[in-house]
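Section 3.1: Structural characterization of target chains.
Under the original work plan, the team committed to producing a structural model for every single-chain target entering the pipeline before any wet-lab resources were allocated. The record below documents one such target. The sequence was received from the expression subgroup and is listed exactly as submitted; it comprises 140 residues.
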Amino acid sequence: MRAQASIELLLVFLAAVAFLLAFMPLIRGVNSLAHHAAVSKQQEISFERLCGDMREAFVLGDGTRIRRDGVFAADTALRTLPGGGFAMFFNDSEKQDNLTRALGFVPALPEAAFGKGAYSFAIANDGGEVRLEITRRTTG
C-alpha cells in the first residue's frame, strides 16, 4: 500500500513538472514582453523630453542653452527625417522599435550610437540651428 502511494505521488509530481515545463516558453515570452514594455516606456520618456527641449530651444531662439540628465534604457540611435522629423531607434532583448516626431525644423544630431546608460544632454540654438550634444555620465 505504501509503495503504491509513493508511485502515485511520484506520478503526480512528474505530471506537475511536465505541466510547468510545457508552459515555460509562454512564461519566458511574457517576461520578455513585460521587459520590452518597460524599456519602451523609459525610451519614450527620454524621447519626449529631448523633443520638448529641442522645440523649446528653437522657439526661444539664438543663444538658448538647455542641459538635462537622462537615461537610454536600450542601445539607441538618433536620426533626422526628411521635412524636419526626429527619430529614435532602439534595440532591446532582440526587439527593435522606434519613435518619431515632426519638429518642424531639422536638428543637428550626433552621429554615434549610444549604449544603455546615463547621459547628459546639451541642446543649443546657435544662429537658428538647434544642436544636440550627448555625453555619457560617469559615476564617482
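Residues 2-136 form one domain.
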